[in-house]
Task: structure prediction
Amino acid sequence: MPLFGRPDIRKLEQDRDTKGLIKALEHRDESLRKEAMEALERMGGEAVEPLIRALTDPNDNTRVCAALALGDAAKQANDRRAIEPLRGALKDANRWVRLHSAGSLTKIDPSETQAIQLLKEAAQDYSLDSSDDYRGIAASYLKATPSA
Result:
């Protein structure tokens, strides 16, 4: 990935450069972060381990994107290694990391009670720092979870 400028996500994905894609999750451009996250999701099992490591990255955006991508990548690969790291991320200081970690957990294991409980609470969170987006995302994760 070049030192300056916009990373070429297609090239990184073609080269199977998970390290470069994880680094792109820190980029200031939200659309680029989304492209990198989606590329990692498409890589499936190959991306699971790098995404697990990214759950502990100091950058909030990286952790949020990793939590989002990990559920789809692990589900696609039928890889349960992500379950314990995602459970750990349910305690992250960032509420979006917690929310997407819970959603990813329910994609891998729809009976994950700790995640379902967090999603139910988030869907009903009308505190001052909550938003319709936050509650709506929680509700959509719950709707996609048969055991919720």
Summary: The chain has a mean pLDDT of 90.
